[in-house]
Amino acid sequence: MPDIIRLLPDSVANQIAAGEVVQRPASAVKELLENAIDAGAGLVKLIVKDAGKTLIQVIDNGLGMSITDARMSFERHATSKINTADDLFALTTKGFRGEALASIAAIAQVEMKTRKADQELGTVIQIEGGEVKLQESCSCPVGTSIAVKNLFFNVPARRNFLKSEAVEFRHIIDEFERVALAHPEVAFSLHHNGAEVFNLSKTNQRQRIVALFGNPYNTRLAPLDEHTNILVLSGFIGKPEFAKRSRGEQFFFLNKRFIRNAYLHHAVQSAYSELLPKEAFPSYFIFLEVDPRTIDVNIHPTKTEVKFEDDRSIYAILRSSVKKSLGQNNISPSLDFEQEMGIEIPLRTKGETVVQPGITVDTNFNPFSNERKGNDTPKTDYLKNMDWGQNYSRHAYNQLELLNETGKTAHADDPSEEQQTLNTKWDTDPASETTSKPVQLHNRYILAPIKSGFVLIDQQSAHERILYERFTGFMREKKCFSQKTLFPESIELSGGDMVTIRELLPDLTLIGFDISEFGLNTIAINGVPVEMQDLNIASVLEALIEESKHRQHEFRLNPADSIARAMARNASVKSGRKLSEEEMSAMIDSLFACSMPYATPDGRPTLLTYGLDELERKFKK
């Protein structure tokens, strides 16, 4: 029997390695940016075309490479970062595996120009599919310029798995932000399809965050600073009032390397436990400096996961530091133990007399008497004086009755036999004229009585269903009602958020938004949907952008439907708002005019029904 195990050709081995290192254009961006930082660059320029599918170019002013080093950098397992296995546990650089350039060159057309400061001429190398096509001397500035063209040109199956341009560019921005946040001492710029997205100058950490995520973050952050013999902790945490419903800007950096760590995230989240609701997530930009010998970064191909030697101590320090920062910045309640716990009594001025407080008692008050003086109505009689007449529409009443009797809703466009019977009963039954009005409970629920019991409606969920069907109707029919603003409202966004808004703009226009670009990373709101004219549009758009960035799996399935869901969720009437009788009646009418009134788009129930027989059973012994 012949032998079956054989060595793979270098071209195939490189493509397999490339599959681990380069999953999408953003992976190549990460590797090239980190190489530029390791080369000591003070200025890094990233140029992208077609979300990296056509071109990814990184230009830096770092050390550059000699002719020999330039050629060796494209060999597998060739690196200047480590010499022995022990060096893996004392890493101070980012890339160290020596596979990045070899993997990229195996699946793309790469051109590199590089020159050291002590050399008059530089070197240009062109590689296609792992094969060197050209190497010669050239004239170029000090530093390195690498252009990656036609990524996955020789692996069409991998190229077909790439997502839309907007999604892939969003991933590139994520990688760019992570590297730029970790190195505020380096100037960065990003250009996409000829347009400038970011232009970041050398600055401090706080200003780098503001430059990336917008001016509002300047007032949303609280500093974090802690020095121990285990780690040095610095950075910023977001104030609780600016927490978001989705995982917003949450960054951990370990020795200036971006990492993901659920254990550390839990430490931060638990520090906010008494300040945030369950579904709110704070923003944080936390930098940890530890001894490289106490961590292992070589456990994941992308080096975003690490192992700590003493993770419990780091957890405790991180949690206490966040709580300390919240207390020092008057964000969380704290006790001042230096203040004397006594009753402060104001001093009396000279000649001032003390006036004894008086107590007025109505000696004629009789709680069992029905007679009252004047027009005063006692609070205990408000139920008797309330008008319990019906004021929501007959169609909604019929829907409520039919819901309780059959569990289905009949629509006005389809008058079924049951609905006709109910309409006849309404017209002939004199008791229907005295059916009660809807009542709001705890500024959260609407109680709508019916002859067979009552229906309890969640006002926020009901309004979410109403707005969702209204927005999807606008998109389907391409007919929207927009309320023009008297003065356009300008909103400043970060570069990444501006890209997201451009992606969502066509569907937002179908809903009723009139948005135009107003300078670099600024939009002007010229009109809003009629349903949102009384809302804070900036907050609604910010929430929509966050959901789009952090729930990309939903937005990729059906962008229009996802936008309608997100807008309905953010624009719906929130629990705690008091509604008038007219508003409650209109909400009941609109809810039962929906095609699916029983649940929100996410599947949460909008109403519950209770019958009189069920109530009677509960009151029986």
Features:
alpha+beta; Heat Shock Protein 90; Ribosomal Protein S5, domain 2; 3 domains; five-stranded mixed beta sheet; 35% helix
What does this molecule look like?
The chain has 621 residues and is an alpha+beta fold. It has 3 domains: 10-202, Heat Shock Protein 90 (2-Layer Sandwich), CATH 3.30.565; 212-328, Ribosomal Protein S5, domain 2 (2-Layer Sandwich); 388-621, formyl-coa transferase, domain 3, CATH 3.30.1540. It has 19 helices and 22 strands. The strands form 5 sheets. Strands 5-4-3-6-2-1-7-8 form an 8-stranded mixed beta sheet. Strands 9-10-13-11-12 form a 5-stranded mixed beta sheet, with helices on both faces. A hairpin with a 2-residue loop joins strand 17 (445-450) and strand 18 (453-458). Helix 6 (165-182) runs antiparallel to helix 7 and helix 14 (495-511) crosses helix 17. The N and C termini lie far apart (85 Å).
How would the blueprint of this fold be written?
Elements: H1 10-21, H2 25-38, E1 43-49, E2 55-60, H3 67-72, H4 100-106, E3 109-115, E4 122-128, E5 131-138, E6 143-149, H5 156-160, H6 165-182, E7 187-192, E8 195-200, H7 205-213, E9 221-227, E10 232-238, E11 250-254, E12 257-259, H8 262-271, E13 284-289, E14 295-296, E15 307-308, H9 311-328, H10 382-385, H11 394-406, H12 417-428, E16 439-441, E17 445-450, E18 453-458, H13 459-477, E19 482-492, H14 495-511, E20 514-517, E21 522-529, H15 537-550, H16 552-557, H17 559-571, H18 581-591, E22 607-611, H19 612-619
Parallel strand pairs: 1-7, 11-13
Antiparallel strand pairs: 1-2, 2-6, 3-4, 3-6, 4-5, 7-8, 9-10, 10-13, 11-12, 14-15, 16-17, 17-18, 18-22, 19-21, 20-21
Helix pairs in contact: 1-4, 2-6, 6-7, 6-14, 8-9, 11-12, 13-17, 13-18, 14-17, 15-17
